[in-house]
Every structure is written in C-alpha cells, then in structure tokens.
Design goal:
Length: about 290
C-alpha cells in the first residue's frame, strides 16, 4: 500500500534505498569521524553533533538530527508546494535517517590512518554516487534542496541554484569555526568530487560518439557502415553556403571502440571526406540501450 500511496515503483524505491544507503555510509563512516562538513542537512548535522559533544559531552546521532532539521522544512514545503512535490523526498529523508542509524549501530570502523585526504575522496565518491541515484528518480535526500525550492516559490527573484549555493556556503563556512580551515578545504574537495559524479549519473554514463560525414560517396560509406559495423545511419540533405551546392551528409552514432574502424572505412572509401566527431553523453534506443527510469 505504501508504494501505491506514494506513487513509487519498486525500481524507484530500490534506487532511493540504495542511494540513501551509499550517501549515509559516506557521511557516517568517513565524514563524521574526521569532521568534514559537506553542506546540506548532513553537514549541518555534523556541526550540531560536534557542538553538543564539545559543550555538553553528548553524542547526538546524525540520524536524529536529520529528522529534526528536516521536519519543519518538509512541513513548509508540503504547505507551499503540495504533497505531490515532497512525497518522494519524504522517502529519501526517512531512509537517510534509517541508514545513518544502522551504520551508527553497526559501529563500522575503517582504518584510514587519520588521512583526511583519503576520507575526503571516499566521502565524495559515496555521497556523489548515492545522491546521483536518489536524484535520478526525481527524489531527494531532503533538506537544503527542498528549502531552496521553498525560497524560490516564495521569492521567485532568487533562483534555486543560487539559493542552494548560498545555503551550502553558509553551512560549510560554519564548519570552519568548528573544525578549522584544513577540514573546510577538504570539505570543498568532497563537494567537487560528489558534484562531478552526480552530473555523470544524471547525464548518463552511456557515452558514445556522434559522427557527421560530408562526402560525395555517402552511399558507399553507408553500405560499409551497415556491413562492417552493423550500424544504422541517416542521410541528411544539406547545402554548402559557400558553393551553394546541394549535397548529402551521413549521421551515425557508434561506441568509442568502433570509432577507429569507422574512420578507417571512411578513409578507404573517400579520403577527402569531411568528418565531425562529437561526444554523445547518453544514447538510448535500438542498437544501444533502453532506459525505463
């Protein structure tokens, strides 16, 4: 009933569960012990947890803090944007707190020999992959992204990206006063690594090459592509603006490993062909991959 109520497919729920597990692992196992404030609610939770530890000698769990901080943000987002907007984020928030609690209780210890650089890389990798999987389903881990959307809804002149940057910058800067300059610099490295991985996952990891071929022998080249590469291709009618002559151009998409063979085919058929090769970050469809996300 929960899946149907929240409108989640099993595949989406699995992706969110896996993503929140990886994200929480990176925060609880690598970021918290060394004091890497990576922005977001997780980073704010690390700061508050450290303050309670120093001031009151209390070990407040990140799991509890994650819930407490997210409750008012979630309620306001619900009231302003509606439940449809926040329902997937609710799952993300609850699962992040669940996994943080699990990893805290498991007391997993990984000996990094107090190397903050290694901790920063591992945090960035786990957080980046985890958040990428979560965001790919249209959900979030809650917190600052919902808050940024809320601010944008109330004050449209503040873009979501700028608001999110400001919020995370404030959180990371606050970490400077608790953990010092070195940890703050490494926290920025974490964000850089995780953002690159998030962009790769959201943009796709199915890299291919899109090739445009201008030639007087497009039919011969097309036949060779069919025969030697077993790849479909498209002929496009074009016009040279300098010569004003009509011509034809082939468009074909291949895997990187097929590119050398394609260039050899073109060179054999028409050494004077003009070739443009572009990177295609993600390719879906017949002959490549399908995506049901």
């Amino acid at each position: 009933m929960m899946f149907k109520f929240l409108g989640l497919r099993y595949k989406d729920f699995f992706m969110i569960a896996l993503g929140t597990a990886l994200f929480s692992f990176g925060i609880e196992i690598f970021a918290k012990p060394i004091g890497l404030v990576t922005g977001g609610v997780a980073g704010l939770s690390i700061i508050i947890s450290k303050i309670f530890s120093i001031t009151f000698n209390l070990d407040v769990s990140l799991s509890l803090l994650n819930i407490i901080i997210n409750i008012p943000i979630f309620i306001f987002s619900w009231l302003v944007n509606g439940f449809e907007f926040v329902k997937k984020s609710l799952v993300g928030i609850l699962l992040v707190s669940f996994w943080l609690f699990v990893f805290q209780k498991l007391s997993i210890t990984i000996d990094m020999q107090n190397d903050i650089f290694v901790a920063a890389i591992l945090t960035g990798v786990f957080d980046g992959i985890g958040l990428g999987l979560i965001l790919r389903t249209g959900a979030s881990s809650g917190g600052t992204d919902m808050l940024a959307n809320l601010v944008y809804k109330l004050f449209p002149k503040f873009s979501i990206s700028i608001t999110l940057f400001i919020i995370d910058a404030i959180i990371i800067s606050s970490g400077f006063f608790v953990f010092g300059l070195v940890n703050t610099v490494y926290a920025i490295i974490v964000i850089f690594i995780s953002s690159k991985l998030i962009n790769s996952i959201l943009g796709g990891l199915r890299f291919a090459k899109a090739v445009f071929i201008l030639s007087q022998k497009t039919n011969e080249i097309s036949d060779r592509i069919f025969e030697d590469l077993n790849r479909g291709n498209t002929e496009i009618t074009c016009r040279g603006m300098y010569t004003k002559k009509e011509g034809h151009m082939l468009f074909v998409v291949v895997w990187p490993k097929e590119l050398v063979k394609l260039k050899n085919i073109i060179g054999e058929v028409d050494p004077g062909a003009f070739i443009t090769i572009c990177s295609a970050q993600e390719v879906l469809g017949q002959g490549f991959l399908t995506d049901e996300l």
